[in-house]
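Page 37, continued from 36.
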């Protein structure tokens, strides 16, 4: 990939330092220059520059790989293919937990536990492999200033009291979580571009961005001409970088997203004139013709590999849905949030506490969701269950 650092393509340290003084750091920077320009900055002959161009081009160009080769490579990896969530039923449905080498999105309304989930996964990633962890560091990009170090320690102590029984272990875990507060799109993108070196130097085994939508929706008003195109371009760039990091280093990437209002079919043609296949906000009085869906539109929706939806059922009950996954069917569970983070619940509800299968509308009646819809944050959320298909289309 063009964003790969020149230090990782086999060039000598002296040459990398010389190129770095001219702000030539990545393969993209190198390949944008002409042979004559490279001869000048590198101090090499034309044949030498020609050979360097060949090496750098081959290093960043996509390579063919067979399915057997991929299977063999994954089998030989020392790290586990999944990061366990320690929620046994969810892990079982996902075939092990949050998949390494892919993007997992956590979406839902405010206050449903997205940041709690991210903090909990930060603790789990630092655990030894024999406890289901990755025994590595965490790169946590916080765009909403929602991260709490106190909450991280509380989850660690409450979820694993026997392991975190000393101050030293708590200090070690908290020192492995590297927090970056980035409040603009440019800052987030620059941080993602620098993560490759962070992953290598700090032994990062999990990347978290909480949240992707926060900065994007602040800076790009899709009602203004040209903004939708620029926003989709930014999201495509961000997703490509994150997928590269996930696949190159075989690590999980967890992202949080927000919700937005989604128009009904009756208004779809009208909406497409303004912002096709994207998130829109309805004016007052149109609530009967809408439901809510994950923000950022189709461009982003197709970029993530797995989508988990956290949502309210009532003041005490919440539900986690596997809405998109290459491994798991549509599945729903009940959960609550305690001192130790997210905890799955077993509730006396007709039809069972979870549903496995392809029918995304089933959980509405099996769980009595249609009866609860009017009680779920009526000022913000409109019948979450009624648009479950929109969430995964």
């Amino acid at each position: 990939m063009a964003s790969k650092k020149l230090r990782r393509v086999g060039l000598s340290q002296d040459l990398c330092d010389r190129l770095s003084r001219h702000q030539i750091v990545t393969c993209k920077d190198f390949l944008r220059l002409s042979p004559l320009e490279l001869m000048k900055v590198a101090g090499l002959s034309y044949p030498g520059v020609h050979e360097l161009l060949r090496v750098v081009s081959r290093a960043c160009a996509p390579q063919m790989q067979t399915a057997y080769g991929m299977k063999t490579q994954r089998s030989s990896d020392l790290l586990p293919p999944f990061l366990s969530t320690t929620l046994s039923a969810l892990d079982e449905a996902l075939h092990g937990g949050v998949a390494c080498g892919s993007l997992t999105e956590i979406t839902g309304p405010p206050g449903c536990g997205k940041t709690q989930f991210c903090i909990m996964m930060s603790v789990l990633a630092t655990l030894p492999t024999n406890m289901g962890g990755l025994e590595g560091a965490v790169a946590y990009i916080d765009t909403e200033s929602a991260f709490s170090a106190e909450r991280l320690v509380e989850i660690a102590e409450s979820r694993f009291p026997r392991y975190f029984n000393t101050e030293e272990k708590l200090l070690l875990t908290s020192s492995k979580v590297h927090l970056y507060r980035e409040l603009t799109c440019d800052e987030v993108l620059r941080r993602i571009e620098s993560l490759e070196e962070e992953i290598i130097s700090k032994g990062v085994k999990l990347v978290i961005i909480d949240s992707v939508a926060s900065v994007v929706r602040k800076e790009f008003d899709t009602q203004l001409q040209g903004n939708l195109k620029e926003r989709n371009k930014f999201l495509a760039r961000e997703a490509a970088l994150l997928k590269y990091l996930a696949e190159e280093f075989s690590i999980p990437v967890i992202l949080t997203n927000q919700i937005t209002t989604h128009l009904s079919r009756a208004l779809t043609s009208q909406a497409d004139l303004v912002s096709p296949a994207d998130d829109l906000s309805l004016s007052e009085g149109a609530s009967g013709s809408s439901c809510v869906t994950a923000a950022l539109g189709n461009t982003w929706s197709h970029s993530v590999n797995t989508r988990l939806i956290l949502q309210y059922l009532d003041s005490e009950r919440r539900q986690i849905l596997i809405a998109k996954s290459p491994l798991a069917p549509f599945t729903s569970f009940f959960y609550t949030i305690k001192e130790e983070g997210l905890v799955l619940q077993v509730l006396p509800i007709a039809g069972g506490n979870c549903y496995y299968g392809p029918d995304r509308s089933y959980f509405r009646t099996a769980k009595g969701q249609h009866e609860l819809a009017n009680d779920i944050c009526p000022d913000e959320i409109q019948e979450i269950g009624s648009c479950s298909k929109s969430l995964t289309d």
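Confidence is low (pLDDT under 50) at residues 266-289, 361-393. Flag for discussion at group meeting. The chain has 17 helices and 14 strands.
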